[in-house]
Specification:
By secondary structure, this protein is of the alpha+beta class. The protein contains six helices and six strands, in the order βββββααβαααα.
Length: about 170
């Protein structure tokens, strides 16, 4: 801590105590160069992590809101709650790891849809229908056709394995 009197960068803590509300710690310090005393306060960083909505509004990242959306999409589907928790954790980490402390909801939605697509196609379509805000049945059908195309064509590595097994 830099001394406010002489600017020296070393001091010693003479006394520490919690504030009455227990929201901060008050530290009494003494400069090791000029021997003057000063007080500092230590507080928890309370700047919230934000999401930027499609219309430009910003709101606090709400972990529970993400989980609720996933639970609705996965209703009556054979998906373990642990998998949903993992998706929520990934979404939260994505926001927390942002240098600006905020992410666009479109980025978070894409991350969630990619995870759901691998886990359960029905849950993916349910989530996508709300998230992508389909305007009509054609948009919905286009998404289903895309999903079926990717499902029908197996990944390249599995083709190579089956070809190697024949030969």
């Amino acid at each position: 801590m830099k001394c406010p009197f002489c600017g020296f960068a070393n001091d010693k803590v003479v006394d520490s105590r919690e504030s009455k509300e227990a929201e901060s710690i008050r530290r009494r310090r003494e400069c090791l160069q000029c021997a003057k005393r000063f007080t500092t306060y230590e507080r928890i960083d309370e700047i919230p992590y934000m999401v930027v909505k499609k219309d430009g509004r910003r709101e606090k990242f709400d972990r529970q809101k993400v989980l609720n959306g996933l639970l609705r999409a996965c209703e009556k589907r054979p998906i373990a709650i642990g998998k949903l928790e993992t998706i929520v954790n990934e979404a939260e980490s994505f926001v927390v790891d942002s240098a600006e402390r905020e992410r666009k909801t479109s980025e978070i939605g894409e991350l969630i849809m990619n995870r759901l697509r691998r886990i359960d196609k029905v849950a993916y379509v349910r989530f996508a229908s709300v998230y992508l805000d389909f305007k009509d049945v054609k948009e919905f059908m286009d998404e289903l056709k895309d999903l079926l195309r990717t499902k029908e064509s197996p990944p390249a590595p599995s083709r190579a394995k089956s070809g190697a097994a024949r030969g």
